[in-house]
Amino acid sequence: MRKPILAGNWKMNKTVAEAVELVRAMKDDLLAVKSVEAVFCPSFMAVPAVADLVEGTELGVGAQDIYWEDSGAYTGEVSPLMIKEFCKYVIIGHSERREYFGETDETVNKKIKAAFSHGLLPIVCVGETLELRQDGKTEAWVASQVEGALKDLSSEQVSSLVIAYEPIWAIGTGLAATSEEAERVCGAVVRATVKKLYGSEVAEAVRVQYGGSVKPANALELMSQPNIDGGLVGGASLKAADFAECVRLTAQAKA
Known about the structure:
By secondary structure, this protein is an alpha/beta fold. The chain has a single domain, classed as Alpha-Beta Barrel (TIM Barrel). It contains twelve helices and eight strands. An eight-stranded parallel beta barrel has the order 1-2-3-4-5-6-7-8, surrounded by five helices. The relative contact order is 0.16.
C-alpha cells in the first residue's frame, strides 16, 4: 500500500519566526493523523528551525531545491550536504524553477541523482502550461518530463521517490484540474510512463501527488482518486487550519 503524502511548499514565504509559529499551530493536528505523511518545505533559512521543532516525530521536512554539486564556486546555491542533516525530502523541478530559473529536464535529472547520492528523497515536479493543454499536448509533454527526470535511475530509486503532477495553469491561479482530469494524468500518463520504463511493480510503488490549488474545498474529491497519493500544496499550506484539514480529508479519502 502506498502511504499518502501531503507536502506543503511554502515557496518564498514566512520568516523563520513565522515558520516556527505556523508549525506550532498545526503540529498536534497533523500528528493526530497517522495514516498520512505530512511534510513541510519552508525556505532554506527556516529549514533548521522547522526541523528542530519536528525532530523525533513522524512529520517530515523538505527543501525546495538543491544544486547537484556538493561544494564549490556556485554563489547562491545550496548543496545536498547542507540540507541532508535537516531534511528527508527535496522538491526538484518545480515549474517556477523551470520558468524563472532556467531548469531543464537535464538539470532536474542531475539534481535527482545528487539527492539520492546523499540519502534525500526527491519530490519531482512535472506539468504542462495552459497553451500545451489547449493544444492537446498534455500527455506527450508530461510523459517526456517523467522520462527525462528518471533517466538512468535504478528501480529502487524510482520506487522511493515522489512524482508531483502540477499543471502549471493551476498553480496559484485558484483553478484546479477536475478530479477526473487529475486522475487521468496521474494514472494514465505519470504512472503509465513509469510502468513503461520500469515495470508494474515499480509503477505501483511510486507515489504520485497532485498539485495546483489544492485546498480543503477540493481535497476530498481529489484524494479519493486511486492514482493520486497525496498533494503538493501551495497557498493552503501557509494556513495552519487549511493544511491540517487537507491532511485530515486525505486520510478520510484513503480510509
